Amino acid sequence: MANERVRVRGTSIFRPIIYGNTAVVLTSQEKLLAPSQEHTHRWTVAVRSAASAPNSEQVGGADDLSYFIKRVTFKLHDTYPNPSRNVDKAPFELTETGWGEFEIQIRITFVAESGEKAITLYHHLKLHPWTATGEPEIPSLEVATKAGPVHSWQYDEVVFNDPYQNFLNILLQHPPTPLPKVKRKPIPFHLANPGSLEASKGGVPEFNALMEKEESERLEEARKAVIAEQDRWREKLIEKEKELEKLQKEVDAMG
Q1: 32 and 76 in contact (C-beta within 8 Å)?
Q2: For the chain, which residues score pLDDT lower than 70?
Q3: Do residues 62 and 53 make contact, with C-beta atoms less than 8 angstroms apart?
Q4: Domain boundaries defined on the chain
Q5: Residues facing residue 13 across a β-bridge
Q6: What pLDDT shows up at residue 255?
Q7: Distances in Å between the alpha carbon of 172 and those of 7, 67, 164, 212?
């Protein structure tokens, strides 16, 4: 049993997750029951598995993540009572009502067997329909109601490097549901891909393997762009250092 607390060096294993929110306009009856008459929307923020269950009316959530997640803490705007909310069992989600958008801090605490530190993610609560530019456009409540739910979700991968043997065993016992290989439903819109706006309409969106591949390619292109920019500035720095060295020699020669 002792060797179960030994790290398996050179091993890397990940679990695909999504985090984000879905928002809908409150009905007249719901608005009467809301904590404030100023509240216009009901929203749910969540951390879920990336794959969606068949015929599901929610984004993601095919798998129970409690085998590696112990707790998710959602830090809401300070105007909410008890703004730091702990969710200690699946599903790791929180539903509230409100009228404004704000940033939510999401802290994921892993099970004790993992030996891993908690991670923190950030999500901008989205209540109003997307636009290709990302600029806020707040339609009338009547128009927003007809438009249907607003979805804002981000795909991510939680990577465990050199995991403990017993935790690795747990992960291997719970393989994630694979993402569909082809587009079966609308896809979640992302500002990094403005062309996905039209493809996101028409129902509950779903992540798929093609999106995962495209996201990886976008990240790789961004990485290459950063490296190219670093190289450009490095060359400029070397050039300036040579100029400085030349000037220093000229000054020394004059002395």
Answers
A1: no
A2: 1-3, 134-136, 192, 212, 215, 255
A3: yes
A4: 12-206, 208-254
A5: 160
A6: 66
A7: 15, 11, 12, 21
Which DSSP string do the residues of the chain spell out, in sequence order? -GGGGSB-TT-EEEEEEEEEEEEEEPPHHHHHHSSSTT--EEEEEEEEESSBPTT-SSSSB-S-GGGTEEEEEEE--TTSSS-EEEE-SSSEEEEEEES---EEEEEEEEPGGG-PPPEEEEEE---SPP-TT-------HHHHHHH--EEEEEEEEEEEES-BHHHHHHHHHSPPPPPPSS--S----BTTBTTHHHHT-SSS----HHHHHHHHHHHHHHHHHHHHHHHHHHHHHHHHHHHHHHHHHHHHHH-
Place of tokens 């991968």: 157
| Structure-block tokens of residue 69 | 């997640």
* Domain 12-206, CATH among 3.30.379.10, 3.100.10.10, 3.40.50.720, 2.60.40.1970: 2.60.40.1970
Residue 135 · residue 104 · CB < 8 Å:
no
pLDDT for 151 equals: 94
Segment 56-104, tens digit of pLDDT: 999 999 999 999 999 999 999 999 999 999 999 999 999 999 999 999 9
Asked if 128 contacts 144 with a C-beta cutoff of 8 angstroms, the reply is: yes
Structure tokens at 119: 């991670």
SS (H, E, C) 21-75: EEEEECCHHHHHHCCCCCCCEEEEEEEEECCECCCCCCCCECCCHHHCEEEEEEE
Check residue 71 and give its pLDDT. 98
Whole-structure pTM value:
0.81
